[in-house]
Each structure stands twice: as structure tokens, then as C-alpha cells.
Amino acid sequence: MTDRQTRIDHQYVGTAHPPFVIAEMSGNHNGDLRRALRIVDAIADAGASALKIQTYRADTLTIDVDGPRFRISDGHELWGGENLYRLYERAHTPWEWHEPIFDRARERGLTAFSSPFDPTAIDLLEKLNAPAYKIASSELVDLPLIRLAASTGKPLIMSTGMASVAEIDAAVRAARGAGCADPILLSCTATYPAPVEAANLRRIPVLADAFATIAGLSDHTPGIGVAVASVALGAAVIEKHVTLSRAEGGVDAEFSLEPAELAALVVEARRAHAALGSPRIGADQSEEEGLRYRRSLYVVEDVTAGDLVTRDNVRSIRPAGGLPPGDIDLVLGRTFRASYPKGTPLTWDIV
């Protein structure tokens, strides 16, 4: 993978930089603006890079009609049997909340942006000077929406859950053709919650290479393990849903992180990135002290001139400084040139 970077708000994003951790509030505000603002504060306290919300109304996602096509399948783990319109009514973030949420996030040093779901959402977000846009997996096939978001000149992040290579290619071409040269692609399993076995993290470098862009992960699995592991596969962006407490419920609570878990993700993802290093093999500068304590051959008994080198008076011990342990058979049977005290490194000039 080639190192690429872009800038979102005041932060650089790319494999050369620590992971850009996006905390998604979604519907975890549970219809309470005060709770929404508390989530913003918790996200900032956890050290995340960005807060993301979703900008839609039930009427911009679907229509108020009931029937099998407009209901979640009965077997769904979280929302089985729910009517789409009613679910989106319950989960949406009221548009009048956007400004106070964005203002609080910016006060706390967070990059604040959103996922728009129709042109009216982009109109609102442009008025709020959103610094970027996120296209949700289900909207990846909405090429007019992608073109409109890209035409703002803002960075564009697109989730690829459920998408074929052809669909991703069409979305990337739409974004680039409308003015976004470097859309960021997130590997995603669009299941809520998603099983760990379906994460398929090996897609991340494939997305980056196939589309010559920055790649990352939108993760709906439990915990932080999958997200941290994604860094080793080149994820420059990590998105996770966040709530104050799963026990308090909410439409997305089941697959959301609590604040302490988000803080752990931020720390461990940065550690994982720092640990990547380079493909160079050999002693690192940090290992210099350790090199002093490698084994080598030493005189382990006082000897005098003419004494034979034996396994009793020469052994492989720590520290370094003497001949390599592998040279023991080359020195056995030779004689010492002079007297040497116990603790003398065995070198070629003394035998």
C-alpha cells in the first residue's frame, strides 16, 4: 500500500498518521438533547478524533406505509418486526439539534460532521459548515447524493457494506467526477450487530490498492478488538458507534461502545499504529542496551600462559564482548598467550 493522506478539518488522515477515530452518536441520544450533549462530552474526554451524527427525517428515508416491505424482518436481532418509518422517527436526530451538537463538539476540539441522506440534509450541513461528509453503506448506490456531497469540495468518506466491486467503483467514479479526488473508503459489514467472523479485515488493503485511496473500517462488532486489529491491515480511519451506557438502551446501544471502551480504543489503536514501524529487519536503536547482554565466550576461571582452552575455563555467558558462542569448537584445545583473570572476554588475540 502506498501512503496517502488528506485533511479533514484541522486533522490529517492517512496511514502515516495515527488512526482517525470517529465516534458515531446515531440514535443513542434516545430523543434527549441533553443526553446528546453528554455523549459529545464523553467522546471528547475519550480522546476521539471526531463526532459524527446522521442527518435525516423519517420522510427523507422512507414513507409512512406499513406492510412486509416496510418492516424489518422478524428475525432481526435488534429491530425485528419494526416499521421503518417508526424506527427512523425514533432514531433520527432533530435538525434543530444539529447546531448545538456541532457547537459543543467544536468547543471540545472535535471535528463534527454527519451522514446526509438526501439533498436537504446537505443543504442544512452546508449552512453549519460541516467539514466533511460520510455516505452510509445503504446510500453507496445513490450516485446523485454522492455527486452532490462531492461537489461541495469537502472530504468524502464512504462505507462499502454490502457493495460489489462494481458498485464501489461507480461510487468512487461519481465522487471523483464531481470534485472529490480522494474519497476515503471504509470496509464495513452492514449487520447490526456484526459477528466478528464477518469483519473480513483483509478487504481493507484491497480497497486501498484497488481504488488508490485511503481505507479504513466502519465497525459494528462488539468490543474494540476488531477495530484495533484493523490498524495492522492499513485502516487509517476507524468508526464506532458510541453510547453513554448500553444498559440504558437505545436503537444502537447493543453494538455501541461505552466511553471507557472508546478511550481504550483510542489508546490501543494509536499503539497499534506506532507498533507498525517499518519492514526493516535488524536491531532497533531501542535494543542497544539489550545487545550488551547477548551471550558470548568468556574466561570463567583464572588461567595462565600455556593453559589449554577447555569447556571448564571458557563458557558462553552474558554479557557480550567475547567471541560468538558458535566459535567454541574453533578455540577448544588452543593455548592462552598469557595469564588472564576470570571474567575476561575471550578474543582471538588472547589464544
How would you describe the shape?
elongated
Helix content: 25-40%
**How many individual helices?**
12
Secondary-structure arrangement, i.e. CATH architecture of the largest domain: Alpha-Beta Barrel
Q: What oligomeric state is this?
A: single chain
Mean pLDDT: 95
Strand order of the largest sheet: 5-4-3-10-9-8-7-6
Q: Bin the strand percentage.
A: 15-25%
Succession of helices and strands: EEEHEHHHEHEHEHEHEHEHHEEH
Could you describe the largest sheet, including whether it forms a barrel?
A: 8 strands, parallel
Weakly predicted, low-confidence segments: none
Write structural notes for this entry.
The chain has 12 helices and 12 strands. It has 351 residues and is an alpha/beta fold. The chain folds into 2 domains: 9-57 and 92-276, Aldolase class I (TIM Barrel, Alpha-Beta Barrel), CATH 3.20.20; 287-350, Alpha-Beta Complex (Type Iii Antifreeze Protein Isoform Hplc 12). The strands form 3 sheets. Strands 5-4-3-10-9-8-7-6 form an 8-stranded parallel sheet. A two-stranded antiparallel ribbon has the order 1-2. A two-stranded antiparallel ribbon has the order 11-12. The mean pLDDT is 95. One of its GO terms (biological process) is carbohydrate biosynthetic process.
